[in-house]
Amino acid sequence: MRDSTVIAELERRLAEFGFRDARLRLRARELREHHEDLKQAALEEGMSETDAEARAEKLLGEPYALAAQISAVLRQSSWYGRHPVITFCLLPLVGMLLMMALGLGVDALATRLCFRAGEVSLLAETGAGMALLNTVVLGTWCGMVLLTAIFFCWLAQRTARGLIWALTACAVCSFYSCCAGIQLHPHQVTLCCGFPPALFHPDWVPLNWMPLLAPMLVAAGVWWRRHQRLKRFPVPVRAAGGIRAPRPRVVLAQTGFFTPSGLIAILAVGAIVVAGLRVRSEVLRQAAIHRERIATIWPAERAAVERQLKSRQMTVALPDARTINLKPWLNAALTDSLGGWDDASSNNLAELPQGLHVFDGIPFDVEGRLQLMGRNLLDGDTTWPVRVRNIKVAAKCVRIHLLHGANGITEDMTGRNVATLVLHYSDGSQVRIPIVAGSQVRDWWGPIYDTAAGWNSCQPTAPGSELAWIGSNPRIKEKEPELSLRLYQSTFENPRPDLEIASIDFVSSVTDAAPFFVGLTLE
Amino acid sequence: MRKTNPSFLNGVPELLVLKLLSHREMYGYEIVRAIQVQTNEVLTFGEGCIYPYLHYMEKEKLVSSSRKEVAGRSRNYYRLTPGGRKRLEELSGDWDRVAAGISLVMGGQHA
Question: Is the separation of the CB atoms in A33 and B75 below 8 Å?
C-alpha cells in the first residue's frame, strides 16, 4: 500500500525532531492505520479513491502540528526534556568532570593491572614515562569530553529536542573543555579551571586543542548523520491536479549488533586494546633499559667523571693564579639551604670542601655562597639580592675564573642569559660578561652521566667551562637519587688585560634560575 | 463543524479516553469514533490529536498498549492500567463537582 502524504510529512518531521527509527516507525504505523480506517470509511460512503484520500488526510490533521504534539509529549515526559537550558548548557560541565574522574579511575586501574608497582613508580619519575602518562591523561580527557558530548547529543535525540540542542551541547562541551584541563606532574594530577581559556596560553601545544575539537567532531557527526537520515524521508510533493504524490515506502534500517556503529565500536575497542598492548611493551622495554642504566651504565659513567674531576683537583694548572677572598660579600654559608618551593633545610652545598682548594685545575678560595635571586626562589622564605656590587679586585688579569652554579635552569632556558659579571676598570669603564645557561652553567641538580641525560647533560658547551665539582646532599638523595649536585668552572677572557679591574658586580638576570658562585680567581 | 473546542475543556479528552477504555480495550480510530458518536459530535478535533494524548497517558502508565490482530488487521490496542483506573476515579470526581457547580449557576440563569 502506498503511503499518504500526511504520513510521509509526519515521518519527515519526526525524523527532524530526532525520533529514533523504532519509535518513529511505531508512531507512523499507528497513524497510517488510522488514515487507512478513515479512507476505508469514506470509500464505504461511496466516495471516489481521490476524495476518500483527501478526506482522510483532512480529518487526520495537519502533519507538522501533529508531529510537534507527539514530540512535545516526549519532551514533557522527562525532567531533562522539560529543562533544556539546564540540561544542555549547565549539566555538560558536571558530566565532563564526572566522566573525567571516571576516566582517571579507569586509567589508574589499567595502570595497576598492566604495570607492577616499581614500573608505575618508574613511569612517574622518568621523562619518557611522564610524557606517556601525559599523553594518556590528555587522551582520557579528550575521550571523556567526546563521550560527554555524545551523551548529551543522545539525550537531545531521546527528548526530541532536535539538532539545535545537540549542537548547543557540543559547543558548550567545547567551551568547558578549553576552560579546564588536566596537568600531570610526578606523582600528582591537577585539575585546572579558569577563564580566559588556558588553551591560548603559549605553553599549550597543538595536541591540547584535541579536547576542544572533539565535541566539534561529534557535532559534525550528528549533523552528517541527521543529513543522511533525512535523505530517507524526502519532503513529499503534491502531484499535478492537487493530489499529493505518493512516496515510495521507506525501508528503515533494522537495529542489531552488527550495525555500522557496532562495527565502528568493535574496531575502536580493538584499536585501543592493540595500542594499549604496544604501549605496555614499549614502557616495559624502556623500563628494562632504565634498570640497566641504573645498574651498570650510569655508575660506570659517574665513576669515570669522578676520576677525571679528582685528577683535576690534584694538580694546579695555574701556579700564578690569584684567588679572591669573597668573605665580605658572601650572603650564605655552604650549609645554608637554597630556598624556593623545595625549601628543605638539607638542600645545601655542605659537602663542598671549604678553604683553598683546586677545582678543574684552578685554585679557589671557598668560604661560602654568593647567592642571587631567581624567580623560582620567590616562594621561599629567604630574600636574595638581585645584584652584588663592588666585589673588590684591584688587580690586572688576563682571565677570570669563576666556580659557580645555578638553581632552577630548565630546558627552555638553554641559551638564555642567567647572570652577568660586570667588570669595572680603574679608568671608570666597564665590560659586561654574560653567563649563559647551557653554555657556561647548567642546573646544580643534574646527571653526571651522558647516556640518556637529555638536555641536562653534565658538561657545558662553551669552551673554557667545565664541570668542576660534584657532590650530594640529603635532599637530592631523597628526591632524585640518580642525580648529583654540580658546580662549574668557567674561564672568561678579560677584554682589557692592560687595565686594572677595580671591582666586579655579579648581577642576576632575574629569570627562573637563581645564579650563585662560590669562588673567584684571577689569572 | 467547529474548528476547536472551548479552552475550558482542558483535561476532558483525558477523562473521556480513560472512561472509554474503562469499558474495554480500544485502538485509536475506535476511540475517536466512540467520542464522536457518544457526544453526538459535540466534541470534535483533528483525529490524529488523540495519539499524543494516548502516548502521554502511556508514558504516565495510565494506559498500556499492545498489538493485536483482529479481523485480519493488526492494531495497537490501548487498555486501562490500575493507575489509569485510579486517575479516572479522581477525574470523574472532579468532573462531577465542577459539572454540579456549573449546573447550579447555569440552572439558575435558565430558570
Answer: yes
